């Protein structure tokens, strides 16, 4: 029970102000998601200061809704307002973080995850009491969001930055090797590699039927003949000495049995083969994540998706923020004795684990 007499009033007042800020910013997350889905940010980024009617007309939307959305954006410090002219403006300095042109910097896109997670909150509340988790099937929009995000990241960095991190890999891909992607989702990364390296052969595995279907559709649209996609629980991957290069983009921490998955990867690699695991850049220790710019967001994603999906399958429940220490330990337990962790200056979100199978 709170002892009112011993309260530090200044500390209490500061905390109340902090809580009010959180409530306002939580509300703004909902409105940012609306701005992403309705393309209002994209529309305004190419407009001079305009009235709500002009903005609504340009976006093909109803003015009354646009005007109320604009009010939230103005009071939230996102959009500038000139009351004398009755005009609204999205500065270029803000647009780069809120529009599709911003690519991986589009934070309005990330706000959609908050809306998605809110839809399963009652199921997560139930898990707090009974244990277990919320299954992947409870997140019908997750595949679409991950596919869109993956496309933004992959298109901007996979060929130019990520693959060259591994010495000699691009040359091997050009010559022709066997490649697999574990937890391939919609398969965009694999299809992009297959298109760029036609002499190599590519296989994608995921347990999502929708993801595999999307991957196959894209492969057909691109006219690729060097890809195959299979719906499979990758903890049962059984392909000894079959691949020269295996990738896992932001997927290992979601697995129910991550150590078994990585053991399967190690077994599937040929001697001298390389495993690239791209995963969230964080520490396994809470105290070392206090300055992480997205720590509250990522722990929230973890509790309401990554961790609970794993637990729903009686899994390890590593969570989004499993961190470098646990990731390295898990790689060792899987049999990888040679690996390094690299970072890309332009990517503050991920660490790049590069493991080589002993010859």
Please describe what this structure looks like:
This protein has helices spanning 9-37, 40-45, 52-59, 63-75, 92-95, 107-118, 121-130, 142-162, 169-175, 188-196, 209-222, 258-268, 295-312, 323-333; strands at 80-82, 87-89, 178-182, 201-206, 227-231, 243-249, 269-280, 338-344, 347-356. The protein is an alpha/beta fold and 359 residues long. The strands form 2 sheets. The chain has a 7-stranded mixed beta sheet, with helices on both faces. A two-stranded antiparallel ribbon has the order 1-2. Helix 3 crosses helix 4 and helix 8 runs parallel beside helix 10. The model has no long low-confidence stretch (mean pLDDT 93).
Task: Kindly list the characteristics that best describe this protein.
single chain; 359 residues; alpha/beta; Rossmann fold; 2 domains; seven-stranded mixed beta sheet; two-stranded antiparallel sheet; 48% helix
Give the structure's gist in a few sentences.
By secondary structure, the protein is an alpha/beta fold. Helix content is 48%, strand content 16%. Helix 1 crosses helix 6, helix 3 packs across helix 4 and helix 8 packs parallel to helix 10.
